[in-house]
Amino acid sequence: MKEKRFSSHVIAGIGLLLAIVVMIGCKKSFLNVPQQAQVPVAQFWNNASDAQKAVSAAYANLRNYDNTAFPAIAVESIGSDDAEKGSSPNDASFMNQYDAFTIDPAEGQLLGFYRAQYANINFANQNLDHIPAISMDETLKARYLAESKFIRAYSYFRLVRAFGDVPLRLTLPKNSVTDFNIPRTPKAQVWAAIEQDLTDAAAVLPQSYPATDIGRATKGAALALHAKVALYQKKWTDVVTYTTQVMGLGYSLFPNFEKLFRVENENNSESIFELQNAIVPGNSGASNSQYSQVQGVRGSTGGGWGFNVPTQDLVNEFEPGDPRRNATIIFRGTTTAEGDVIPAVGDNPMYNYKSYVPFNMFVSGFPEGSQQNVRVLRYADVLLMNAEAANELGQTATALASLEQVRARARGGNAAILPKVTTTDQNTLRTAIYHERRVELAMEFDRYFDVIRQGRAAAVFGPKGWKPNKNEVWPVPQSEIDLSSGVLTQNPGY
Prior knowledge:
Helix content is 43%, strand content 7%. It is built from 19 helices and eight strands.
């Protein structure tokens, strides 16, 4: 019999086995340990404990290699003018395809990223299909479903901005003839589905959680992601609406920009959503994040791989005296604020400070820096989205006020740097806001798609090889097209 194979979005719908997550008593206990066993679906989905494990498994999957390491770096970072491959010239040279826009649709990181998002969606869809039938506390049930919708929305957001039209699967397949191998859905419909999930989630999710559940999606996370989704569609009024709601929920900018990204300050006042990582003693499988390791200082001192390094172009973007420059970039031959001496010689002149974990926190047998959370949404981004949308609507005073909050935090007590922006000219203010997004959010996987949505990619990325009417999206992985027997189609130009 001929073997039947399916593409990733098909596999994402099959999902008959579920990873069981064992709980551990600490602040990230709800998702610390990944799969310990696999239970046939017929023996699962029976009670509230099963529902809790299923939702925890969905969160845990968000931190895996394909979601946060090489595939994410390739698709979401290296194409920008902020970052380049790094490491030694011959190490993982395939990553240069993303920097030069010579990407082969068969390149493996593309596939890894694509499949990772559909795996996340699969976890969410399993929850949304099965949890409603479980007899349990209805308030908790509603929250679990809202959390699953947030995870699904987040993954579809990453897919649609990277690939444009993508297969939209909102339930597990029911009919083997019609439901398994589905075509790409127009991106407008995907955006609408994302917005519906986030509307539903925001209506149910709590504003905060007790310590044992810190890291779960909140009302603020759903609203902030909805604002970003609206930003990509230029729905300026919606952006202002959602960001204003978030601004009323009690978030505040963390006083010290550099310390904001350190392990000891995870889930702080500025954090809206973070992927929770931890070192679990005796369980290296649970401590599996390589987000920090792959970007860490290369060599025996730093223990990292040295990929996704800042560019000189990014260095040049910072205004004189902006402390965010040295809090974003680790320069070769310097000493970090935490006291680590960076060798003066090595493969790379600089590294990503935001993914850095002090060397004395490395634990033998675990990936270096595996305890570092990944910051996904933070309050500074919300303020800058509010500023951008308000400026587009002619609400200059609002735009200037939100922009100033971000610059004031960076300025600290030094009035001689980062002067207050006072222009009332819309075009000049727009340029100032674009600049601020770049220096504030550098190396956080937004710059590449920001420039594209702003309509500036040909000018900014053109010298690197970026071409209009092609590189607005990446190619659909070729193996997915092949496995679909042509039901999936390729993006133009690839």
